[in-house]
Each structure stands twice: as C-alpha cells, then as structure tokens.
Amino acid sequence: MHYLRLSFALGLASLTAACGQKAETPDSSEMTGSTDNMAMAPAAATPILAKGHGTVTAIDKGAGTITLAHGPIPEAKWPAMTMAFKAAPAIADTAQVGEKVDFELKITGSAGEVTALTRQP
C-alpha cells in the first residue's frame, strides 16, 4: 500500500511539473525533406466573388453599410439570412429600403462587400 501511495505522489508531482512547460517544436533548420504529407498553414483568405438576390432592409450611409435580407449564397456556403455589408457611397446612394435587388459581393473571410447592385423588375 505504501508503494501505491508513493507511485501516485510521484506521478502527480511529474504531471504538476510538466504543466508549466511548453511543448518543444523543431526549428526550421531541423526540418528537411518533402512537405507533401505535412499539414500546411492556411493561406490568407482569398476573396470570393458571389452573386445574390434579396431585399434592402436598411442603409447606414455613415457606417458605409447596406443591410440585405438575401437568399442562399452558394459560393460562400451561406444560408438565407439578413446581414449588413460594406458598400461604396455610390451603391448606398442608389439603393432604397424595401427594394428587391440583385447584387454582387466580394467576400473575404466572413465579411462581404457589395460591389454592384441592380433593382429587380
């Protein structure tokens, strides 16, 4: 029974001592050979160009945004939703709340910018 207590105490002490240590990582000079099987870090977000249809629900010229209730946008894997997008003043000035519109987006990460807007007939 004494050995069990001693083993438990030593194991606990080892774990406690290891908690404050950082994991060692090899520096680039130690890494040689092919990187074919290595997981690569994600590249910077590449913009996606997408098109959508929706209704203008709000325009905030001060913030430079236009809010659209839009249908699904497959290029971005977005379901139908209502969200605010950045928009150039020329685009925000031509839109009116309540209009049904077709729009083009430039999406970077989870944010989008309306690059073109046309009224639906």
Automatic annotation (TrEMBL):
Gene3D superfamilies to which the protein is assigned, alphabetical: Copper binding periplasmic protein CusF
A Pfam match: CusF_Ec
Domain of life: Bacteria
InterPro entries: CusF_Ec, CusF_sf
Name the UniProt record assigns to this protein: Copper-binding protein CusF
Organism: Sphingopyxis granuli
Organism classification: Bacteria, Pseudomonadati, Pseudomonadota, Alphaproteobacteria, Sphingomonadales
